[in-house]
Amino acid sequence: MQLTDSEQKMLSGAEGYAVKKSMEILVALGEIFGAKSLIGVGSVQVAGVSYHNLGDAGLEFLDELARDGKVKVLTTLNPAGMDLENWQQLGISPEFAEKQNLVIEAFQKMGILVSCTCTPYLIGNLPLYGEHVAWSESSAVTFANSVLGARTNREGGPSALAAAFVGKTPNYGLHLDENRLPDVHVQVNTQLTKLSDWGALGYAIGKKAENKIPYITGIKAAELDELKSFCASVVTYGAKPLFYMKGITPGAELQKEPKESVVVEQSDLRNAYDNINDEVSEIELVCVGCPHCSIKEISQIAKLLEGKKVAETTELWVATSRTAKQLADKRGYTQTIEAAGGKFACDTCMAVAPLKGRFKSLATTSAKGCFYSRQNLMKTKMGSIEECVDAAVTGKWNN
Ligand code: F3S
């Protein structure tokens, strides 16, 4: 890989340990993937924040980098293993909280914004069309590439951090025009009537696209929360972290329809629900917010909970960014949700919090949430926000 003089200097240690280590990571990655050079990035999103996934070895790695490492571009964090303010209420142990706080301190020392969200685009890390970035979390990467038209590979935690310290990333993969062409035309011949249908659609297209880039037609309109949910699902169940949706996402009209084509029918959505939903009726945890809830979703939950109480057998978590929660505080949504017995799970999510064995069953709006919760040994149900709030109030899945 060709390096400029200043990049060579960084590699030889002129800017300290963290930058040298970062350059080593970026050069190694670039060489593996055949990059010819590094390319500047406008922002970074770092995953690998939960102590649950990092362990002591990960914490040690971060501490070393934090000694002299300072990020060069806007850098935000993915969810941590707990709500940083309200962890006791969510049943997190003091031992875990202590370690998680050390992880956060290390990131803070590096100059990273402790945003702890997988929806960085909702809190001010919003790349422009065509902008190169280095993001990590799969739903956010898919959103950046597809809905915003920015350019990013799916970075691992260390390579994203390295990009933040250097302000650059190797120029390969989805940074290059030739790797962003759609491979399979997906004609959608079915109506989408509720939020979870977008998760089911992501499941169906992910399975059919099989690590190809889909060019999707047949969808007339989409809202932000629907695209957010679709991004999480389509990449979890199979496709690359980039899709084109004709009439909806930027740049779709510039693409040629690929020769290979598949169709998604009503029966494919039914099949998705059948595969995602387990046989279970008693619901112990309801979690809405995968990806993290927008303020609009929080307002919908608050409205549905007015005058109601969450069942004693069930917990309701609203997973969101702290920024969205602050807006919810101002509008009174927090008070309504908490008065009904619901809890906010800011800064964290059901996949990265240490939940294994704590709950036997989950109801959620999210296909991705079901995928990861099964790994935490939960039986899962996916449905609309209305169905999830109903499950929280009755303690049962009633559909
Ligand atoms: Fe976000 Fe966690 Fe879901 S990172 S997309 S809430 S699994």
Please name the defining characteristics of this protein.
alpha/beta, single chain, globular, 14 helices, Aconitase, Domain 2, 5-stranded parallel β-sheet, 399 residues, 3 domains, binds FE3-S4 cluster, Aconitase, domain 3
Task: Please describe the topology of this protein.
Layout: H1 5-11, H2 17-33, E1 38-40, E2 43-46, H3 51-66, E3 74-77, H4 94-109, E4 134-135, H5 138-147, H6 157-166, E5 168-170, E6 184-188, H7 195-209, E7 214-217, H8 224-236, E8 244-245, E9 261-264, H9 266-276, E10 285-293, H10 295-305, E11 315-320, H11 322-331, H12 333-339, E12 343-346, E13 361-364, H13 367-375, E14 379-382, H14 385-394
Parallel strand pairs: 2-3, 2-4, 6-7, 6-9, 7-8, 10-11, 10-13, 11-12, 13-14
Antiparallel strand pairs: 1-5
Helix pairs in contact: 2-6, 3-4, 5-8, 7-8, 7-9, 10-12, 10-14
The chain binds FE3-S4 cluster (F3S).
Q: What features would you describe in this structure?
A:
The chain is built from 14 helices and 14 strands. The protein has 399 residues and is an alpha/beta fold. The strands form four sheets. It has a five-stranded parallel sheet, with helices on both faces. Strands 8-7-6-9 form a four-stranded parallel sheet. A three-stranded parallel sheet has the order 3-2-4. The chain is globular. The N and C termini lie far apart (56 Å). The model has no long low-confidence stretch (mean pLDDT 97). The structure holds FE3-S4 cluster. Residues 78-79, 118, 137, 139, 232, 290-292, 319, 349, 351, 368-369, 372 line the site of FE3-S4 cluster.
